[in-house]
Design goal:
homodimer; 194 residues; mainly beta; nine-stranded mixed beta sheet; 14% helix; globular
């Protein structure tokens, strides 16, 4: 069975708690949606922040909405070198022992003690898709990407099942670049681990 | 047969002709070796240049020596976005139809009309290694990299055989990051195409 999966490429971004939003944009500040993501209810906000690490900083980092319980900053490994820190490869929400960072917004700054990760590559899907495909939440799978001159097979891809999830492979910019992902590139799910 | 291959990660760099070196560093200028690469006779020079593209620039780009017949600038896809140009994935020396770029050095500037590529991933090896492994110059192979949370298999890896070549997989920074390559990470050559 060949399962064709759309690909979404995540550039560095920040999920912030309302407490952090209050500090960096002002008390009671509400994020303003700029564009809606394919996952239901999620949006890229008009707001951006600057991330400041031990070695350097990254400006114009997009804030995602709605606010989350906990701050989570997702960067690529290329970004790590720029900032001068090491972010472990983690699934969203698994933040124990992750490094912190300083966040500058339009109204102030906030030092986060933890929350910087390099997102583990993953596939979002609905429970219906999971049943159809025969995989479970948390299962590691492989996906094949055929592109001009940069074919590869990604292992360590985590299946993430949720009622609001739409079938989509999420890669960071390093991963998408290494696979030569462009407009119209699809991934193929390899359910059997070789 | 498992063949364990050391990995070299190539950051963006510039191979320049002596004519271009004359223009950007001064007439008759000789590159000064800073560190020797594992491939015989090749070195990273003390000299750096700034690359200027339509959208942005990259400073402190390392020049490699010795000088080559033709200018060849190797950048990652992440760099392409920064510079605002598209570099095709090519093997070294295959420069027909590639974009140009402006190079600034300590003594002047030079507009290159062509020569910017995204290096096709490849394995250097000696004729003896090629015979032992059972592959030929130009053959596409696959390599597996097992790393913490970022296992993958790269396809479209070109074998490059030369008497001065030492067994080594060359990846750019995007590719190394996507595979979680760190100190002591090795690649495994998969000779049979699946």
């Amino acid at each position: 069975m060949n399962i064709r999966i759309p690909i979404a490429v995540s550039a560095r971004h920040a999920h912030l708690s309302q407490a952090t939003i209050d500090q960096v944009f002002g008390a009671g500040y509400q994020l303003r949606p700029r564009s809606w993501l394919s996952q239901t209810g999620q949006f890229a906000a008009q707001e951006t922040v600057t991330l400041v690490g031990p070695k350097g900083q990254l400006r114009n980092v997009r804030v995602m909405g709605p606010p989350r319980e906990r701050d989570q900053i997702e960067i690529s490994r290329t970004d790590e070198f720029e900032l001068g820190l090491e972010a472990p490869v983690r699934v969203s929400g698994d933040l124990a022992g992750t490094p912190g960072i300083t966040v500058h917004g339009s109204a102030g700054s906030c030092i986060l003690n933890t929350g910087v990760i390099s997102a583990r590559r993953h596939i979002h899907m609905s429970p219906q898709d999971a049943t159809r495909i025969g995989v479970q939440d948390g299962q590691p799978v492989r996906v094949r990407i055929d592109s001009e001159g940069r074919d590869l097979v990604f292992g360590d891809v985590t299946v993430r099942v949720g009622p609001d999830f739409r079938l989509e492979l999420h890669l960071d910019t390093d991963e998408a670049n290494a696979a030569g992902v462009g407009k119209g590139t699809y991934a193929e799910l390899l359910v059997t681990e070789a």
